[in-house]
Amino acid sequence: MKKRQFIKNIGLGAAGMALAPTLLTGCKIEEEIKEEFKSFIWVGNGANKTMEDWVKQFTRIKSLGFNGVFAGGDANTLDMTATIAKSMGLEIHSWQWVMNRPGNKEAMAHPEWYAVSRNGDSSLDVNPYVGYYQWLCPTKPEVQDYIINDMIKIAEVEDVDGVQLDYVRYCDVILPRGLWDKYDLVQDHEMPEFDFCYCDDCRSKFESEQGYDILSKEDPSQDEAWRQFRYDSITNLVNRIAKEVHARNKKLSASVFATPTLARKFVRQAWDEWDLDFVMPMVYYKMYAEDVNFVKTASEEGVAALGGSKPLYTAQYLHDKTNEELKQSIEAVKTGGAQGIAFYDYGLLNDEFGEIIKKIKA
Prior knowledge:
By secondary structure, the protein is an alpha/beta fold. About 40% of the residues lie in helices and about 10% in strands.
């Protein structure tokens, strides 16, 4: 059955308008909506979900007051889910992994595309930390073109509101403090096996710009120009993606590390310099071995760094929270000055959490 005929049959055209009356309102209300505290949730790619499953899930999400969802999947899957979400008055942004491409057959056909550690190991063959870490090199033009073409396909899906970038960074050269014990590590310096990318293309491009091979340095991790080179490699890729996504009248967003300072230090992300429409710092405070006040201070730093150039929606992880901790984290996001909040993920959204989140805009 055609997707739009399916929606017509179940009455979602009318149901969607009932759930989202603001779609038919005037400019004044539209301006008020732009200023509201927004809420989003990640919903996965739903590869095995039927249309009926998505309708049920999105109906619940809408009833809890969410403004939108971040949904995975390829263009064919999104063609269905986006239509359903839009019929219900939900924004839908396509959740796409960028630099980390585990098991990607197209990329694996080009082993030279993968990032190389300071130890000289390709992340295709030697996975840092976990088996699903297979990082591409953002400096290579052919990798950039491959990724950008993927994002263009998503941006051209009719009802998708935007593209949401994840893993748009280098491998974690340093993990947040709360994860050190998990991996039996003390990361008080940049370890070579987690330090990327030292492939021939990166080294030669850097040498042509700076006049020296980074591996000629006794400790490459302390070279400021080398750090900046890698910040710029990711930033240039993001801004190239932005140009294509915006040309198709879609929004671009990204889930990023907690603050601009920590993002640069841990994963070479200078996300406050990216041409985004909004940004979701993942302020998962327990991973940083911090208390809930970190949510407030991290949100404040991000908002200040952006200087009003775009909204910031602080992301929170539902996995490790009690009901009281969820309430506290929501309040911390608000007092930190964020324009909204995002939750990872729908599979963890129990009924008690749902009732707490429903009160965000009460």
